[in-house]
Amino acid sequence: MNEHDSERIGGLLAADGMAPSTSIEAADVIVLNTCTIRENADNKLYGYLGSLRAIKMERPDLKILVGGCTAQKDGDLLMEKAGWVDVVFGTHNVNRVVELMDHADEWGPVTEILEETSSFDDFPSYLPARRQTPHSAWVTIAIGCDNSCTFCIVPAVRGKEISRRFGDIIGEVKALASEGVSEVTLLGQNVNSYGRDLDINGRSPVFADLLRQVGSIDGIRRIRYTSPHPKDFKEDVAEAMAETQAVCEQLHLPLQSGSDRILAAMHRGYNAERFLSRLEMARRTIPNLSVSTDIIVGFPGETEEDFQATLDVVAQARFDQAFTFQYSPRPGTVAATLDGQIEKAVVQERFERLVALQNMISHESNQAMVGRSEEVLVEGPSKKDPGVVTARTRGNRPVHARGEYEPGTYLTMEITEAASHYLLGTVVS
Ligand code: SF4
To answer: Averaged over 115-135, what is the pLDDT?
Structure first.
């Protein structure tokens, strides 16, 4: 979501006549689009702003803008902590970035934070974008979140859930396809509740309808989406995935914890058994499904027994990939006020055990791919070796192979070797 907002900010600046700079030193304008999901992201922002201070002292004309979730959360405090910033804007007024910059030029530093997105027209997706890749695009289908997971700052900084109009999403994907985009990723905090606030001839559209419609657009070969919520993920979406050729066999289903007690404290709305049964349903319905997840270690009150329950669920679920996080309290969330915050060393030790288990499972899962023939989409040359290309399978596994191919090319590769986090292959055609 945040990366997509950055593309929109880039698009607005480009529409105003600016061009991207290759270095901070040469830039006239620096925009930091911030994330506040974890404490570390906040710390990084303030550290980085400190390093920009000297450049601003040397070149007072330089404009420094800070937007995104930390800006939404901290507002005026950000100006207090870093007085050399020119503009602070939030998540609901990305569309105002150029006006605010002009205002700062004329009148001095400005902070503008809105409580909510005022209209459909302020949706980031209606703003011009400067896409990072020509063949692949993000498409926002909803903003905000109506859930109340106790660890999460998102509802506070992104506001209530608003679905984007069905026809507008289809229109955007058609336009992207006509520009040569073949892969789209549909974005929402909880895609399964898409459409509840909309009405098309007396009926609310559902996410499964959207998957089928997007899948029928000529030129779209791959559809991904993030994220579904395990409490709301039902058969209709799994069936739409299985029946729509363009929808990739990939599901990101965030577990967060395997302990029923901790899941209840997190307000997740499911228990371990329900999670596993939804996962089983998805795997039964969608052949060759790759599954990834998110897990938080060290939520307040997590005992060794709770953590063991997480390890048990991870062992049963056999996720192909997991994004693992050490809990960090976010001021403004319920969890930050709970008793039983866990000592850092204990969290670290549990985290390492979880990562070791998951690495083993990921390695075995990748190992099972060896010998298979896979359609892959080229992302570009590998960062380490320009003679090696990096591509991605439909199941979202990165594959490296010798050769030079244009980003956006579809290839067939035979998978020859596997590690925990990537595959190696050879190009067949
Ligand atoms: S579903 Fe929960 S974790 Fe996801 S954005 Fe909403 S509140 Fe946060």
So the answer is: 72
